[in-house]
Automatic annotation (TrEMBL):
Residues covered by the Dienelactone hydrolase domain: 35-244
InterPro entries for this protein: AB_hydrolase_fold, Dienelactn_hydro
Name of the protein this chain belongs to: Dienelactone hydrolase domain-containing protein
Domain of life where this protein originates: Eukaryota
Species: Monosporascus ibericus
PANTHER family listed in its UniProt record: DIENELACTONE HYDROLASE, DIENELACTONE HYDROLASE FAMILY PROTEIN (AFU_ORTHOLOGUE AFUA_1G01900)
Length: 249
């Protein structure tokens, strides 16, 4: 499985994250909010846990949901260079090597472990993931976990997702899907629709016309179309979690 340049293309938002850094199990983690009852596990994209946009998004979720949002480091301290991304020097980014060190098989166990830690701390737990975090969110909601690791998931422009991931999900699913997304093909979208209907799971699909993969967390907030998509995506995720993390409603 592979990713494309669109998985690291993007803009850095203005603003300074307001949360704190701590530990979640064995992982370093950015924490926003302080609600002992409800939490959201944010699985970051390829730009990692320290990318300011991820932390600013977590801040918004924590404030609007009145919940605690955790953004753990799932790349063992490694990050894709922000400077190379922001200056468009994608040819200098070794994505195959990076994925070889941080692929699904490598990182899935610690993603599960972080969710288990949150289950010990909070009554309700949701998961949200963009790009790389998309497959992980589906896996967190898989029926193999007993008890469930999370109560619901929200996924934006997922990468590395398989049909098996979709087939095995067992919790309410929200998908935030830009119109132009080579990582989430029309075939995979159709499979998502058909499978979740067969599984009789609560399902919310949000279509974002005229924008591209990555726009919801790496879009240009100075471009009207992308800014509107980012705001709408954030609002949709907030509304979704309010339904299923009852203490955050």
């Amino acid at each position: 499985m592979s990713v494309s340049e669109c998985c690291v293309k993007g803009f850095k938002w203005d603003g300074e994250p307001a949360g704190r850094v701590g530990k979640l199990g064995n992982n370093d983690v950015y924490i926003a909010g302080d609600n002992p009852e409800a939490a959201v596990l944010y699985v970051h994209d390829l730009l990692g846990w320290s990318f300011p946009n991820a932390r600013l998004f977590a801040d918004h979720l924590a404030e609007e949901l009145k919940t605690t949002v955790y953004v753990p480091d799932f790349f063992g301290g490694e990050v894709v260079s922000f400077e190379l991304v922001l200056t468009g020097q994608f040819d200098k980014i070794d994505l195959p090597g990076f994925l070889g060190r941080n692929g699904r098989e490598m990182r899935e166990p610690e993603i599960f472990d972080c969710a288990r830690e949150l289950r010990k701390k909070h009554e309700k737990v949701g998961a949200i993931g963009f790009c790389y975090g998309g497959w992980a969110s589906f896996r967190l909601g898989a029926r193999e976990h007993n008890p469930p690791l999370v109560d619901c998931i929200s996924v934006g422009h997922p990468s590395l997702l398989t049909k098996k991931d979709i087939d095995e999900v067992a919790v309410p699913v929200q998908v935030l899907s830009p119109e132009h997304d080579p990582m989430y093909s029309p075939e995979m979208r159709l499979h998502t629709f058909e499978t979740l209907m067969k599984l009789s799971l609560p399902f919310d699909y949000q279509h974002f016309p005229k924008v591209e993969h990555g726009c919801l967390v790496r879009g240009d907030d100075k471009q009207p179309g992308e800014r509107e998509a980012m705001v709408r995506g954030k609002n949709a995720a907030v509304a979704w979690f309010k339904q299923f993390l009852s203490s955050a409603a």
